[in-house]
């Protein structure tokens, strides 16, 4: 992951990470989901990263939508 990418959202549920990514995409914000779950035990988090230039806007969009589990 490059230095310019910041984690703005994390969850342990795949569908919530995809919903958050979709919301950002609708507003032309590129994002990347990094899966930090343990492959054997399936615990851990999925983290959603955006470019540093979109951190505030991205957090604002996700806060307004009130995704369950945030």
General description of the model:
By secondary structure, the chain is of the alpha+beta class. The chain has one domain: Alpha-Beta Plaits (2-Layer Sandwich), CATH 3.30.70.790. The chain is built from 2 helices and 3 strands. Strands 1-3-2 form a 3-stranded antiparallel beta sheet, covered by helices on one side. The radius of gyration is 12 Å and the shape is globular. The chain starts with a strand and ends in a 5-residue tail after the last helix.
Would you kindly provide a brief summary of this structure?
By secondary structure, the protein is α+β, with helices and mostly antiparallel strands. It is 34% helix and 26% strand.
């Amino acid at each position: 992951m490059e230095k310019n990418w910041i984690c703005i959202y994390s969850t342990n549920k795949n569908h919530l990470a995809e919903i958050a990514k979709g919301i950002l995409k609708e507003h032309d914000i590129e994002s990347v989901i990094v899966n930090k779950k343990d492959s054997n035990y399936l615990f851990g988090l999925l983290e959603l990263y955006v470019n540093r230039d979109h951190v505030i806007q991205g957090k604002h969009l996700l806060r307004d939508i009130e995704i369950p589990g945030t």
